[in-house]
């Protein structure tokens, strides 16, 4: 069995820094990267306040706790000094807390999706009821525009154009009878 050279804390930090922070490493992979023995890796993790029962460890966590602990030890410090250092850090969330947080996020996502569906249903229902009022609303808006200054003149001009027709000689004549004007408008065809 070949012995790997134990790396310094600076070398370990450089190796971990080269990896994405979200990368998860097993204890075996940590041993391979650091050149530390299984016992040393487990002891350092434990003294850092990192649960040794975990199957994997994020590079971000190792950079935050494991690497500083190794620096303390490289500088001649003890595991007692490592424990004192760890007390200055924020407590770690347990895996159970992370699972609860994940469940909370999932619940909030589901609540958001449900709320969106309810809101869409309410809007769709209101839109269906609104369709019945749209012709009246349109007529009111159109008549309002006709009665206003510039709209009134434009309406009168367009109406006069509609009411003028060419007779058989090509001359225009004005229709005096509204029934005649009605005949000029496009008729509605019924589907057979």
Share in β-strands: 5-15%
SSE order, as H and E?
A: HEHHEHHHHHEEH
Radius of gyration in whole Å, from Cα? 41 Å
H/I helix tally: 9
Largest beta sheet: strand ordering: 1-2
The proportion of residues forming helix, as a percent range, comes to 55-70%
**How many β-strand runs?**
4
Structural class: mainly alpha
Compute the number of structural domains: 3
What's the end-to-end separation, in Å? 93 Å
Given as residue ranges, the uncertain stretches (5+ residues, pLDDT < 50) are 95-100, 185-192
Tertiary shape: rod-shaped
Q: What characterizes the major β-sheet?
A: 2 strands, antiparallel
Mean pLDDT: 78
Short description:
With 192 residues, this protein is mainly α. It is 65% helix and 5% strand.
What does it look like?
This protein is mostly helical and 192 residues long. It folds into three domains: 9-87, no CATH class; 93-131; 134-184, no CATH class. The protein contains nine helices and four strands, in the order H-E-H-H-E-H-H-H-H-H-E-E-H. Strands 1-2 form a two-stranded antiparallel ribbon. A two-stranded antiparallel sheet has the order 3-4. The longest helix is centred in the middle third of the chain and has 37 residues, at 95-131. The termini are far apart.
List keywords for this structure.
single chain, 192 residues, mainly alpha, 3 domains, two-stranded antiparallel ribbon, 65% helix, disordered C terminus
SSE layout and pairing:
Layout (H helix, E strand, L loop, with lengths): L8 H9 L6 E2 L1 H8 L3 H10 L9 E2 H16 L4 H9 L7 H37 L2 H14 L1 H15 E3 L5 E3 L3 H7 L8
Antiparallel strand pairs: 1-2, 3-4
Helix pairs in contact: 1-4, 4-5
């Amino acid at each position: 069995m070949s012995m790997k050279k134990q790396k310094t804390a600076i070398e370990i930090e450089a190796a971990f820094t080269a990896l994405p922070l979200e990368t998860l490493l097993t204890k075996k992979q940590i041993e391979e990267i650091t050149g530390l023995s299984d016992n040393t890796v487990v002891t350092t993790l434990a003294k850092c306040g990192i649960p040794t029962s975990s199957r994997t460890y994020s590079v971000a966590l190792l950079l935050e706790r494991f690497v500083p602990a190794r620096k303390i030890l490289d500088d001649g410090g003890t595991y007692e000094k490592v424990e004192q250092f760890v007390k200055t850090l924020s407590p770690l969330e347990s895996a159970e807390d992370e699972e609860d947080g994940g469940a909370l996020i999932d619940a909030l996502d589901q609540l958001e999706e449900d709320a969106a569906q309810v809101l869409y249903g309410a809007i769709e229902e209101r839109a269906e009821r609104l369709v019945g009022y749209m012709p009246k609303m349109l007529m009111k808006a159109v008549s309002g525009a006709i009665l206003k200054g510039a709209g009134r003149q434009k309406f009168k001009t367009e109406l006069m154009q509609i009411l003028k027709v060419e007779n058989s000689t090509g001359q225009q004549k004005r229709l005096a009878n509204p029934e005649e004007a009605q005949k000029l408008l496009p008729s509605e065809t019924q589907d057979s």
